[in-house]
């Protein structure tokens, strides 16, 4: 355990100034929760001055205000480039109050002036129809983290710090948030923080003892046990505790000075190639030998501040005879009947006046000089730091010319490549071209090589600051590939990185990206909101590469087979989400090029890592991806003079292979049929244009799929999604979709499609079943297809491999 004792104490004047700022922020936080009028209490408080619906959360606000007040002091004293991630849920009143005091709120929203009129508007808008949320939301200047869903603050903070060597990222972690799995995993992020090229993260664990209705685990641990936990995570704790404001101000100032001095010493030492002389992993009892550690030789024990203050500090001690201050009852609205209960109204009046607002604001409602004594200026203010509006700092990503990586395609369906392997070669060049500026990262849960992206190691290694052994490969203290077996942490890192103005890609097994379903929800909501805020600048898109997908989990089996992330994404805001299913390597390159250059989207790309047929040359791939869906006239049997008899449609690499094989079988066995082959890369194209920016008009859709002919659609994921996307189309009754039916096991690649009725033989049977007149005349062909399926069943159980006619198939026109 470390205590904050070394720095000199504050003078009485300094303490009074800090306390004035803190009291002002507390007053404004309470006012936002309660007041509809009379913001400066210039007249006795009456029921009509109080909001009819009391919404918001008080319990965490005084602690957050304390942190903001003291961050102001050190930022100004040290000229720090600093930002803060506010983790506790519903901390909006505190952060809004502080941004109003410092002036950044008025600069962002000029109608919320820094005077009595503006204070009144600030109060009224909070959790009010047409106003602002109770969280630290996108509307809040200086925020990159939505405080509604808990667990992601620390990973966001580290993402912001990566490749920002001059930045200090404070991160307030509520003790409720500290109980979540994502937060627990993110403590390990310090093993990936490079003191040479990255900034610093200063976690502030705020223990106020309670959640909504229960005590919190960490607050009930003894100090020794908590220290053991935090030291086990690799941190050096600095403690601040108490309920006497003047003493806590002294302790908090000392703690921040101690922590920042240590951070500066570690960084200077690492950047100068020397030992900082402070506690490190290598100097602890039982610690690793310096030769076995990353970084400059010894991984720092970065400081963490443990702040213990009462829940609802400075609020009502009791209400209706029950204890409130310091208990879970102060979590939300301590006085809930102010408009109808005169006792509650009197208590609210006393509570607000206890902050002595006349000392804090002048007659016009402007903060007095003492309140502003330690507020930083300009971009140094927490509400104005440009890193918190990352689009201001974003630069174009240098994506190389795709032709250098394109697969040559003389004849479709005769050569094969591993699509993600080729993409890895392109990403290697992106890594090389961003080596100096360091603004691109690849993240994933221990799967970069498994997903065939290992070419990137030619340009950069895997970030790693912990112990290394001689057998390790590609570990690099300065690397920009991030791997940790926590999808939550990967997602949080990348979100924090993007939100502060950089670029990246998240590579993941398709089945397990579901782990971050809730996180991507929040990011999509963030992007949708920021699109409506003109002061928020566009960000690089959040890009997913989902591979090791449902159809090629030959060795892992059923547990690794789930294509449902696509369904989840396409339920979200249409102006933000995009889903791409490139059928081969060149379409993957084209889609990736588009995604990496795009802004303010969540792009989901599903592509295989196994050898896959090359269908389109690079020029054709570009054109096809630009259309999003199109006819492959070379694959069908249309004559251009008559409507097709049937449409074979596909989306995804394996479904495309099966449709192409089915088209070839139809050509051979049913030559009288006019077959149209349609491939869909961009799933949103199936939606009406009124529902999605990429959607097709009814006329476009009918021209592609026909309004009245059978459409046999082979789809990568759950078949009902295609029905949902196309249910309003005229030809929906003729649409028959084959896809994954939650039938999986460890088996051969072709057996997976047979088990789910997506195979070429089943597709030919569907053609016969649905084209009028064929059910009788083509019965022998249908039986031939059924026999092939039975033959496949027997073959794989004897030989363990797919039928030669399947395994050795190539496209022939």
From TrEMBL:
Name the UniProt key words of this record, in alphabetical order. Answer: Lyase, Thiamine pyrophosphate
Q: Does the keyword Methyltransferase apply?
A: no
Which residues are in the Xylulose 5-phosphate/Fructose 6-phosphate phosphoketolase N-terminal domain? 10-392
Please give the Gene3D superfamilies that the UniProt record associates with this protein: 3.40.50.920, 3.40.50.970
Q: Which PANTHER family match?
A: PHOSPHOKETOLASE-RELATED
Q: Which family does it belong to?
A: Belongs to the XFP family.
Know the name of this protein?
A: Probable phosphoketolase
């Amino acid at each position: 355990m470390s205590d904050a004792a070394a720095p000199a104490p504050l003078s009485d004047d300094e303490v009074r100034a800090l306390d004035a700022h803190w009291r002002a922020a507390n007053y404004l936080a309470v006012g936002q929760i309660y007041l509809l009028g009379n913001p400066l209490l210039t007249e006795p408080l009456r029921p009509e001055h109080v909001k009819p619906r009391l919404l918001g959360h008080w319990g965490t606000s005084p602690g957050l205000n304390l942190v903001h007040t003291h961050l102001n002091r050190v930022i100004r004293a040290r000229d720090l480039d600093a930002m803060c991630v506010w983790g506790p849920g519903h901390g909006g009143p505190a952060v809004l109050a502080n941004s109003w005091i410092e002036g950044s709120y008025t600069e962002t929203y000029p109608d919320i002036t820094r005077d009595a009129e503006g204070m009144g508007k600030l109060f009224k808008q909070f959790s009010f129809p047409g106003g602002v949320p109770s969280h630290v939301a996108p509307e809040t200047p200086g925020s990159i983290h939505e405080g509604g869903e808990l667990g992601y603050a620390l990973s966001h903070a580290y993402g912001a710090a990566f490749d920002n060597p001059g930045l200090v990222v404070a991160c307030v972690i509520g003790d409720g948030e500290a109980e979540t799995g994502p937060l627990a995993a993110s403590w390990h992020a310090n093993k990936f923080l490079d003191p040479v090229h990255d900034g610093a993260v200063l976690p502030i664990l705020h223990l106020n003892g309670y959640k909504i209705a229960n005590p919190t685990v960490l607050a009930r641990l003894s100090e020794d046990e908590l220290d053991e936990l935090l030291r086990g995570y690799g941190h050096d704790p600095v403690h601040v505790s108490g309920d006497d404001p003047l003493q806590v101000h002294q302790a908090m100032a000392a703690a921040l000075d101690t922590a920042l001095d240590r951070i500066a010493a570690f960084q200077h030492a690492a950047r100068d190639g020397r030992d900082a002389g402070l506690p490190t992993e290598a100097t602890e009892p039982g610690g690793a030998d310096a030769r076995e550690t990353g970084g400059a030789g010894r991984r720092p024990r970065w400081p963490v501040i443990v702040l213990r203050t009462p829940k609802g500090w400075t609020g009502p001690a009791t209400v209706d005879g029950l204890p409130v201050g310091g208990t879970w009852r102060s979590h939300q609205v301590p006085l809930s009947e102010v408009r109808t209960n005169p006792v509650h109204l009197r208590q609210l009046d006393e509570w607000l006046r206890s902050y002595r607002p006349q000392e804090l604001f002048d007659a016009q409602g402007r903060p007095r000089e003492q309140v502003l004594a330690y507020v930083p200026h300009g971009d140094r203010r927490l509400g104005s730091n440009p890193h918190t509006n990352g689009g201001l700092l974003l630069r174009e990503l240098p994506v190389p010319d795709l032709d250098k990586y394109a697969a040559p395609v003389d004849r479709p369906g005769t050569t094969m490549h591993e699509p993600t392997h080729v993409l890895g070669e392109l990403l290697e060049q992106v890594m090389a071209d961003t080596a100096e500026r360091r603004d691109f990262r690849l993240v994933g849960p221990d799967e970069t090589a498994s997903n065939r992206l290992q070419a990137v190691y030619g340009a950069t290694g895997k970030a790693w600051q912990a112990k290394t052994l001689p057998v390790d490969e590609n570990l690099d203290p300065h690397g920009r590939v991030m791997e940790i077996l926590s999808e939550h942490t990967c997602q949080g890192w990348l979100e924090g990185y993007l939100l502060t103005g950089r670029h990246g890609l998240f590579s993941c097994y398709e089945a397990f990206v579901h782990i971050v379903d809730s996180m991507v929800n929040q990011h999509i909501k963030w992007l949708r909101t920021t699109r409506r805020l003109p002061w928020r600048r566009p960000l690089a898109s959040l890009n997913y590469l989902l591979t090791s997908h449902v159809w090629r989990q030959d060795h892992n089996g059923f547990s690794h087979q789930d294509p449902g992330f696509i369904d989840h994404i396409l339920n979200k805001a249409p102006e933000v989400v995009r889903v791409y299913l490139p059928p081969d390597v060149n379409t993957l390159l084209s889609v990736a090029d588009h995604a990496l250059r795009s802004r303010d989207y969540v792009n989901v790309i599903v592509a295989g890592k196994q050898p896959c047929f090359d269908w389109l040359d690079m020029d054709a791939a570009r054109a096809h991806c630009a259309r999003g869906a199109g006819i492959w006239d070379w694959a069908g049997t249309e004559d251009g003079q008559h409507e097709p008899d049937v449409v074979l449609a596909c989306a995804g690499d394996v479904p495309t292979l099966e449709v192409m094989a089915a088209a070839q079988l139809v050509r051979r066995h049913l030559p009288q049929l006019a077959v149209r082959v349609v491939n869909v890369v961009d799933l949103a194209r199936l939606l009406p244009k009124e529902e999605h920016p990429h959607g097709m008009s009814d006329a476009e859709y009918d021209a592609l799929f026909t309004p009245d002919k059978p459409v046999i659609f082979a789809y990568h994921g759950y078949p009902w999604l295609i029905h949902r996307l196309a249910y309003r189309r005229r030809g929906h009754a003729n649409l028959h979709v084959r896809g994954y039916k939650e039938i999986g096991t460890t088996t051969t690649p072709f057996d997976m499609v047979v088990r789910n009725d997506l195979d070429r033989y089943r597709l030919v049977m569907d053609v016969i079943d649905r084209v009028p007149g064929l059910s009788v005349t083509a019965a022998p062909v249908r039986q031939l297809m059924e026999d092939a399926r039975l033959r496949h069943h027997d073959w794989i159980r004897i030989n363990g491999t797919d039928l030669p006619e399947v395994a050795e198939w190539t496209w022939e026109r």
